[in-house]
Structures are given as structure tokens and as C-alpha cells.
Design goal:
alpha+beta, three-stranded antiparallel β-sheet, two-stranded antiparallel sheet, 3 helices, 23% helix, 18% strand, elongated
Length: 198
């Protein structure tokens, strides 16, 4: 009909070895839709898209800090996000755009956008819903916010269990990992409460 389901192409590059000019890899999501333009011969025309999603490497220079001068309407300092993609991400998305173009062409699609232009349209950090690493997990309080249990180094009764504690994620949806972290963190916090450590 006019509302087909979407498609997903799992990561296929750098699966067993690093044979590409970038680390890690990408998957693609996409689908077809019927446009609502004027009817063409044979019915309403279709549009097909493939959108790559790739892993962003951890970068200690990317950070979120609090403003010393600006505050929101509740008096809380506003966050300042200082993040940028690195060379690895641009190389990966260049190949992803080229691969997507080749796949669409092989599938018989016509009027394709130039892949070189698509490769330059990398969305900025924070434009997708699974950004992570703003309160990373680690052993050293100088380079991390929480310990291996999601417990804040500086505030013992504060626990985090979402994507903030992960330095990076693969190209797949990390929601199940968040759920596992949440269960593990909650169990540890309950044990600490039971033992009187909190």
C-alpha cells in the first residue's frame, strides 16, 4: 500500500577486521513513502531513503559544562555543550553515503541525490536520540563522573544508569543496554542501603 514498513541494514563494515580508513561502523535505516505531489503516469511517485547511523568515538574534548553567568527561569545554570565530530566520523559517513547511493541505484531507484553532497550533511552531535557519555563511567574521578556501579564519585547517594555513563555505543539502538545498567545499578544501590553503606 502507501505505508510500507521501514528497513534496517545491520552494520557490515569492520565487523571482523578493521579494513576501512575509519574505526567501528554504521548501520542504515530507511524506507519508502508515496509522495503527495501531482500524480505521475502510473500513479503517485515513490521516494526511498537510506539514513546511516554510525558510532561516534569517545572524545574527552567533547563536554557539557555549566554556564557561570547564564541561568534558566528557575535559577539553574544553563548547560554549555562543546562537542564536534572527528575525522573518523566524517570518513565513516562519506563511505556510508556512497554505499547508500550504490544500494539505491542497484535497487532500481532513479533521480538519486549526489552521494558526495549527502556525505557533507553529517548531523551535528546531539541531533540524534542516543547521544551519550556526558557523565561517563570509570575508575578515576579525574576522568569520569561515576564508578563501575553508576555511583557518583563525589556524591555517594547519586546513581546514574542511562546513556550518560557510556563513553560510546555501537551503531545499534542501546536501549536494552540502558535497561541492563539500570537493573544492575538499582540492585547495587539496594545492597548498599541494606548494608548501611548509604
Amino acid at each position: 500500500g502507501e505505508r510500507p514498513t521501514g528497513i534496517y541494514i545491520p552494520r557490515y563494515a569492520n565487523v571482523t577486521e578493521t579494513d576501512k580508513p575509519y574505526l567501528r561502523g554504521f548501520g542504515m535505516q530507511g524506507g519508502g513513502v508515496r509522495t503527495r505531489r501531482a500524480e505521475a503516469p502510473g500513479g503517485l511517485p515513490w521516494s526511498m531513503s537510506l539514513m546511516p547511523f554510525g558510532e561516534v568515538l569517545p572524545n574527552p574534548d567533547n563536554r557539557v559544562t555549566l554556564s557561570a553567568s547564564r541561568r534558566d527561569s528557575w535559577g539553574v545554570p544553563v548547560p554549555i555543550i562543546d562537542a564536534a565530530h572527528g575525522r573518523n566520523e566524517y570518513l565513516m559517513m562519506r563511505e556510508a553515503a556512497h554505499d547508500a547511493w550504490q544500494m539505491l541505484k542497484a535497487a532500481g531507484c532513479v533521480d538519486l541525490n549526489a552521494w558526495e553532497e549527502a556525505a557533507e550533511q553529517v548531523t551535528p552531535p546531539g541531533d540524534r536520540i542516543h547521544e551519550m557519555g556526558t557523565a561517563r563511567m570509570g575508575r578515576d574521578p579525574a576522568t569520569s563522573v561515576v564508578n563501575g556501579w553508576g555511583q557518583a564519585h563525589q556524591v555517594p547517594n547519586l546513581f546514574l544508569s542511562d546513556g550518560a555513563v557510556m563513553a560510546s555505543s555501537a551503531s545499534m539502538n542501546p536501549s536494552l543496554t540502558y535497561m541492563a545498567l539500570s537493573a544492575r545499578t538499582a540492585n547495587h544501590a539496594a545492597d548498599l542501603l541494606r548494608d548501611g553503606a548509604l
